[in-house]
Amino acid sequence: MDSTQQEYLNLIAEIMDVRKRSSKPLAYIHTYGCQQNVADSEKIKGMLFLAGFDFTEAAEDADFILFNTCAVREHAEDRVFGNVGALKNIKRRHPSVIIALCGCMMEQAHVAERIKRSYPFVNLVFGTRSLFHFPEILYNVLLTGDRTFERDITEKSVCEGLPVLRDGSFKGWLPIMYGCDNFCSYCIVPYVRGRERSRSSEAVIAEAKDMISKGYKDITLLGQNVNSYGKGLNEDINFAKLLKEIDKIPGDYRLRFMTSHPKDCSKELIDTIAEGTHICTHLHLPFQSGSDRILKLMNRKYDRKKYLEIVNYAKEKIPNVSLTSDIIVGFPGETYEDFCDTISLIKEVEFSSLFTFIYSRRKGTPAAEMEDVATDAEKSKWFTELLKTQEEIAAKRCASMVGETHRVLVEEKNEKNGLLTCRTSGNIIVEIESDESIIGTFKDVKITEARNWILRGVLI
Question: How many helices (H) and strands (E) does the chain have?
Fold first, then answer.
């Protein structure tokens, strides 16, 4: 962060010292959507912390309220609008509170216009590419009292040095790039997050070293398509090389990454995972549809044969590799025959788990103009069939793990059943009975029971 933005944080601290309602100004941050949004919120928290803010879980108590929004699916947008509307009463009770919206939704002109017209109590709207200017934007709102809409700033470079206040103490997100160049026909991301911009390997490796030195055990490298990392940088680097360099850092930790686009998934990357010391044996590789016809309509730039070649190479090179994926059901033009191609691919690959979605039309994307041939009822029926198929595969895979011993990271306590939730290198959930003092540590666990999606085990 440059000195100018730091100075704005100092000025914000002076203003908030007068406006605060408690001993310190309080901020309430609510994040919707993907891990990239979470990472962005952690940067915003870092900047607010430097401006003297503490944080609260109650919006009613806050002097600054921020919703970091997601535009990937319609349901997520509807939730945001509903929750923003509920803030009207807080604003009425506490007129000095600043209400702000940021994230992917705010990069859409029609959304920003709706906020401006229908939610007059919202003080500040800024998009994903305005993040690095946040201190200046917030200062101007506090100084003038004017409503501010700051969006669609073209960021062609990556600003380093932003402060980060991470949500977790042993699991953390590490962005390596921003934006996307793929323009899948259903996806709004390239329009709201901009074109691909990679961080330098030096900056990424330095942040990884810092996280490991602070005791982070599970680090996830983030990008809209991590496999295209390095394009445009003036260095001989790609994602496989970056992963290999981070893997060399001494320490007791695991490396994960997402999301990985099949068209750019190389044998070099798979070999790097297979030969790695800290790299998880888990590959999240979204295929979206098993039908070549639908993949072409989606503009995915690979076909079923190419996808299976990658998967089979990964199975050959990485023992017990855990494969997960994303699937869209009911894409415009999809027939039941196309859907059956998806089911057959699921059965052939035998994924550990799937993230499944019924297609959500996104205004501004090519797919939004395509003709839809399936009814909502048909799509729901297909979706149920898909879930049943995957449940049977997951149950079979989990059952095959009974009796094995796995090194797991103990993550949290399940308040519903009192058990501790752990995660294997392959991203499989294991529940154990033990003391909370071991949360945040690696333990060896013997699997004793399989329950469809999760496992039960005992400490060795």
Answer: 13, 19
